[in-house]
Amino acid sequence: LTGTKYGCGGGGCGACTVMISTYEPASKMIRHYSANACLLPICSLYGAAVTTVEGVGSTKTRIHPVQERLAKCHGSQCGFCTPGIVMSIYTLLRNHPEPTSEQMIAALAGNLCRCTGYRPILDACKTFCKESICCQRKANGKCCLDQEDDLFDNEEKVSTSLFSSDEFQPLDPTQELIFPPELMRMAENLPKRTLFFRGERVTWISPVSLDELLDLKAAHPKAPLVVGNTSVGPDMKFRGVFHPVLIAPSRIPDLNVLKYTNDGLTLGAACSLSLVKDILSNAIAEFPEEKTKVFCAVLQQLRTLGGEQIRNVASFGGNIISRKSTSDLNPVLAASNCMLNLASRGQKRQIPVSDIFADGVGNNTITPEDILVSIHIPYSRKGEYVSAFRQAPRRENALPITNAGMRVLFEEGTDIVKDLSIFYGGAISTTVCAKQTCWTLIGRHWNEQMLDEACRLVLKEMAAPGSAGGENVDYKKTLMVSFFYRFFLEVSQSLKTMDPCHYPGIPVEYGSALQDFKTRMPQSIQIYQAKPGQSPQDPVGRPIMHQSGIKHATGEAVYIDDLPSVDGELFLAAVTSSRARAKIVSIDTSEALKGAGVFDVITAHDVPAANEFYFSDDPEIIFARNEVICVGQIVCAVVADSDVHAKQAAAKVKIEYEMLEPVILTIEEAIKHNSFFEPKRKLEQGNVDEAFETVDNIIEGEICIGGQKHFYMETQSMLAVPKGEDKEMDLYVSTQHPAIIQVM
């Protein structure tokens, strides 16, 4: 459950997905939702039921239809992501026994798979969907992908059938696990009380009233409020941030409020993003379109914010109050004049969302004692238009490169700008407002002249010193202008719809810019040759289920972290270089050795014989001794009685470096220092010099491709067990190449 088996602690891959079930006594409702175990503090699960993949079904009892179909449809290869995928589908089926394809795609958006490929996983999912996934576009009613007749000789026997759905056991919702009655009784009968959980270094406090929360925040102003742990968790795990006190406010009614007022909708700060998404969807269906422009824009951003597992636990207030530039919600909430309801001891106040970004990163509008209680989202007015935009490396489950929220209000019955708000995220370290641009454009007609000036103003204002870090400055500027251009097109089209006589709208060829990208269930096919009369014992060319497929889907397949502890087992955590090329002046291990459960720190001096091994012709260094040649090179390692203690101690090892010159990090620097790999490799054919003298045209130029960002997937681990004689060891290694491990 703590995510040690699968979990990275970042909540990114979904391999450690579990199902959380809670009971609400007032409504008598049971809620099932998926979540990433690696991000879930166990203290937050008081009163909840947790179902892991092992609880869904096993080979010893009976396997669940989800597990069976995923295995038989060939939806697992290494099996690392399979338990998480099973749990995402299982949770969806508990809530919707006959899901639509859109619901299925949304449920899987937070699950990544490296080696299987998504087609067979989706093939298994399609068997649960109520509507036919087939397009039936052919004249004979067959799918357009069914191309057997078109592609092949009739004499050549081919097949596209990878599994037989007749073999599948039916899904029977009446046979699922019930919510534990003892938890139901506990929720109904026990009075709510403050919970304290005290650990080795941290105290977790979960109050039940707003007054108590305000007292706690006054007593512990630096203690963060934790609801979904999607921000605090990664900070503590990856960035070394330590909080001795954590306050969990999710059980306080004031922070879970849902209230419609005359001018809008008020939502509690502890409401999950999934709940906010559902509430806004219902409101859009219920209210006239004129009043729901803000709701639609916020909902647009919520659809692609994280994956389902993240949205199910992350809080609405947490996303706002963190003030991160990567927040997809803050620009649109700020542009829409949404309000924050704050409370501290003896004081309640209301401020616009835009106020917390007014002076950039150093803004102190919200004090450490302030609690964000709720957020007020206003209804839109007649003549008001609101939009939100984002661009990310991937559509779902990825932080944005740049995002934006924009709102315009026109003078009644005209296209003259009365009020304009433009906010961008991702440009600098927090959300930023294009104030000068907005002020300048008030009173202008909404036409192409205004568009030209707006683009120039946005570029000028957003190009302020230090406004965009990293190598993507020009790309981010392009996105900012593109977002405003799309907003211009959307509003122009809306004005035409309102009054076609006065407003020309946009040319037909620009219409595609307004179409939203829809994620559809992919259509695909695999074709293989079928041999008549092939022996049943001959597996070649046949779609045979992975021998470990069922065990992958039930969580019974044994990975290294599943092996029983060996007597005297210790854990090793590597300390790696933070410099690219440097001399090691000193390694100070004194603080690390004082850590709880620490046995030793191993350096190059502890390695018998040569401090190297061979992977190819050149030796690989085990521990850097005198100098490091890259960031991430292993310098030493801490050995302790637990994984947590080893990592805590590794962070305390202090290494002093002396930079070596030159540090060559680019092609240009390598050319300057005459640093080339030998022998130089060329691709040549014929007499190159002669060809260049006789050709009609020579095209010259250069292209620069930056290094690809590393996309981490599986956690890697190994176990070394000394045999006790002849210096032999048994090694259990997570590798796809056992032979080369033996050679090394």
Automatic annotation (TrEMBL):
Extract the GO molecular function terms from the UniProt entry.
Answer: 2 iron, 2 sulfur cluster binding; FAD binding; iron ion binding; oxidoreductase activity
Q: Which SMART domains match?
A: Ald_Xan_dh_C (SM01008), CO_deh_flav_C (SM01092)
Ranges for domain 2Fe-2S ferredoxin-type: 1-56
Q: Which UniProt keywords apply?
A: 2Fe-2S, FAD, Flavoprotein, Iron, Iron-sulfur, Metal-binding, Molybdenum, Oxidoreductase
Which Gene3D superfamilies does the record match to this protein? 3.10.20.30, 3.30.465.10, [2Fe-2S]-binding domain, Aldehyde oxidase/xanthine dehydrogenase, a/b hammerhead, Aldehyde oxidase/xanthine dehydrogenase, molybdopterin binding domain, CO dehydrogenase flavoprotein, C-terminal domain, Uridine Diphospho-n-acetylenolpyruvylglucosamine Reductase, domain 2
One Pfam family in the UniProt entry: Fer2
Residues annotated as transmembrane: none
Boundaries of every FAD-binding PCMH-type domain copy: 197-382
Q: Which InterPro entries match?
A: 2Fe-2S-bd, 2Fe-2S-bd_dom_sf, 2Fe-2S_ferredoxin-like_sf, 2Fe-2S_ferredoxin-type, 2Fe2S_fd_BS, Ald_Oxase/Xan_DH_a/b, Ald_Oxase/Xan_DH_a/b_sf, Ald_Oxase/xanthine_DH-like
PROSITE patterns from the entry?
Answer: 2FE2S_FER_1 (PS00197), 2FE2S_FER_2 (PS51085), FAD_PCMH (PS51387)
Q: Could you say which cofactors this protein requires? A: [2Fe-2S] cluster; Mo-molybdopterin; FAD
Write out the similarity annotation. Answer: Belongs to the xanthine dehydrogenase family.
PANTHER family reported for this sequence: XANTHINE DEHYDROGENASE
Protein name (database record): AOXA oxidase
Organism of origin is Cinclus mexicanus (American dipper)
